[in-house]
Write a structure and sequence with these properties.
Oligomer: single chain
Strand content: under 5%
Strand order of the largest sheet: 1-2
Helix content: over 70%
Number of strands: 2
Radius of gyration: 22 Å
Number of domains: 1
Low-confidence stretches: none
Largest sheet: 2 strands, antiparallel
Order of helices and strands: HHHHEEHHHHHHHHH
Mean pLDDT: 86
């Protein structure tokens, strides 16, 4: 079977299976009262089921199994599948019965170490920051840091409708296309299986209550894990000369997944500078800034999709640029976009505060006038 046809089929299967699975998951969630209950730090106002990750997981596993042709060409798959299963059940437990953060963190480190042992490992930075081949200890350390960091970055950015799923989909399709062009068909198949399943999930995530569903930790952890794995595969196959043609593949990887990584880093710095734990919930994420501009969830997500696509186009256009130059270009584009959102949110809040102050002053004058009449 033609490999391009297999990509189309795995994408379509993931999409269809997830679309069909989620209504049943919603029915069970409502019968068992399994909801994400709103509180002071969340942006939704009604109890919403948060088990969409189950549908994504089912779509990915079944669609990939259906159309994978030769897993000998994907020797790391048994480790990837094991990692999926572990994080799936951990995320499911966290969605149903909250787990302590340190326990989740320990499990994620163990999963990342297992993947590194199985060959999903950063061996060479190919000149990024002047670094080439890594000593085995640094290779394991950087791999674990990268996988755990990206996995949690997608988990933390999953704060509004469609954001994590859409950004993850863009990342998966981008890496999938690059891996396909490099002849790494089974790896590309996994990327398109996840991308199709995410698209099926987004159809339900963007719906109105009571048909809306969130992906929950079950989905966001699986998504972050997938993107980190695909990034490592792309980096390693670039080293082997798989026809990618990028001078600075490490910068390309960081640029493709820049929004969750940069946003999480920025928020952690703000929290630490304020004397708080980096895991303290707040409203400093980039999507909160976009919402503060008056955008709806869908519009805010679409705006951030556009930024992600712009970054992908930028690295494609400047693919022959050395790492320092390409890094500076990406940093400039990302910083400008981020600051526009932050500034827009700040200005919108200032306008609302000024409007509220003016209204309060008017009410006070009216009360004073009524008191004088009385």
């Amino acid at each position: 079977m033609n490999d391009l046809l297999r990509l189309s089929l795995v994408f379509g299967s993931g999409l269809l299976i997830t679309l069909l699975a989620i209504p049943s998951i919603l029915e069970v969630a409502y019968k068992k009262q399994l909801f994400d209950v709103p509180d002071e730090r969340k942006v939704h106002f009604k109890p919403i089921p948060s088990l969409g990750g189950i549908g994504i997981f089912i779509g990915v596993i079944i669609s990939f199994t259906l159309w994978a042709k030769d897993l000998n060409n994907f020797p790391e798959y048994k480790y990837v599948l094991t990692a999926y299963l572990v994080l799936f059940f951990m995320g499911l437990k966290d969605d149903l019965i909250l787990m302590r953060a340190y326990k989740k963190f320990i499990i994620q480190i163990a999963v990342a170490a297992m993947l590194a042992y199985g060959g999903v490992r950063v061996y060479d930075l190919q000149g990024f920051l002047g670094i080439h081949e890594l000593h085995v200890i640094w290779s394991y350390a950087l791999t674990i840091l990268f996988i755990v960091g990206v996995t949690n970055a997608f988990n933390l950015i999953d704060g509004i409708d469609g954001l994590a799923g859409g950004l993850g989909g863009i990342n998966c399709f981008t890496f999938g296309a690059l891996l396909y062009m490099g002849g790494m068909y089974e790896y590309a198949l996994l990327a398109f299986a996840v991308g199709g399943s995410l698209l099926g999930f987004l159809r339900h995530n963007f719906r109105e209550y009571p048909k809306k569903i969130f992906m929950g930790d079950t989905g966001s952890l699986l998504l972050g894990l997938t993107v980190s794995i695909l990034g490592i595969f792309f980096l390693n196959f670039s080293k082997e000369g798989a026809g990618f043609g990028f001078v600075s593949p490490a910068v390309v990887v960081l640029a493709i997944m820049a929004i969750p990584i940069v946003d999480t880093t920025r928020v952690f710095i703000i929290r630490l500078a304020s004397g708080k734990s980096p895991f303290t919930p707040d409203r400093n994420h980039i999507h909160h800034q976009v919402l503060a501009m008056g955008a709806s969830h869908k519009v805010a997500s679409l705006m951030l999709y556009a930024v992600n696509i712009l970054l992908v186009i930028t690295v494609m256009v400047f693919r022959n640029t050395e790492s320092v130059g390409l890094g500076l270009i990406i940093l400039f584009v990302g910083t400008v976009c981020t600051q526009l959102f932050v500034f827009g949110g700040h200005m919108k809040r200032e306008q609302r505060m000024a409007s509220t102050k003016t209204r309060l002053e008017q009410l006070e004058k009216e009360n004073q006038f009524m008191n004088r009449i009385a």
